[in-house]
Each structure stands twice: as C-alpha cells, then as structure tokens.
Amino acid sequence: MVMKFFKENVWAAVAITLLRLYVGWEWMHHGWEKLTSDFDAAAFLKGAIAKPVADRATQEVLFPNYTYFIQHFALPNVKLINFMIPLGEFLIGVGLIVGGLTLTAAFFGMMLNFLFLFAGTVSVNPWLLVLGVIIFTAGANAGRFGLDGYVFPHLGKVWAKLTHRKDKTGNGGIGKALPH
C-alpha cells in the first residue's frame, strides 16, 4: 500500500520531483566544476590503491577486486576516467533536473556513489546514494513532472501504432497506468 502510494500518487510525485531537483543539482554542479577545471583523478586513484578500504581489526582489504580494477584498468586509463567521471556526473545531474531518463540517471548516480565508496571516499556519497535509491524506487512517478512524463506517453502511442496494439494503460503503454 505504501509502495503503491509512493509510485502512483501525485503528491508523492511532487515530493520526488523536489528531491530529484536537489540531487540533480548536486550531481550537475560537481560535474560542471570538474569539467571546467583541471580535474585529474590520478592522485585519487593512487590513494585508493595505497590505502584501500580495509577491516580495522585485521587490516584485510575488503574489496580486493575493486582495488585490482583501479590499479590495472582505471589508473592506466586515467585520461578516460578524467573524461568519463565529470561528464557522467554532469549528465546524471541534467537527467535528474529535467526529468529525462530519470531512472537511468538515478541508476548511474547510484553506481558512481558505490564506486566512490568502494574506493574509500565517504564524503556526500552515502547521502546521495540514499536519495538516489528513493528516487529510483519511485519508478515512473519520479519522472512524472519532467520530460519522462511528457515524452513516454507519446512514445507509447507511437509504439502502439507501430505494433498495432491498443494502449490501455493511459501511460503511453509503458508500465502501469498512472492516476491523473
């Protein structure tokens, strides 16, 4: 019952939209800062290799596969990382702000938060991860007041015509019907 409210209610959509705007601004802002500066992830990656996340009692590395990935892929390809991280952060933010491909943006935001956490950076990552999970959990309701809410019903109608199906959902044939 609570999840139905969260995924379909218009007031829940308003709350998620406000949350989406905040999280989107955070991602876009940080991505833009990196895009317009001399961002270099090399020192961060070297630090993640030198001091990997470890158990306090045994000092055993908790994510050895991720440390291996950083050492053998990310660091040798730091130029690619220096391009992908800022661009990814910026696009995640834009997607969340305009409500376009909202769930995709939330998913990739959560993925970046996990990657940063596995590397040992706490900062705002747990906070943004929790907010990203809330946005992602709202499903289609997260993009209701954004491009998704406008584009998906039209795409659904086009798809229904192309496949000769009737759209009975009222949501462009995508997912469950959203109440109006």
From TrEMBL:
Mode of membrane association: Multi-pass membrane protein
Keyword Transmembrane helix on entry: yes
Keyword rRNA processing: no
Segments passing through the bilayer: 90-115
Principal subcellular localization: membrane
Compartments, as annotated in UniProt: Membrane
UniProt protein name: DoxX family protein
Keywords on record: Membrane, Transmembrane, Transmembrane helix
GO cellular component entries: membrane
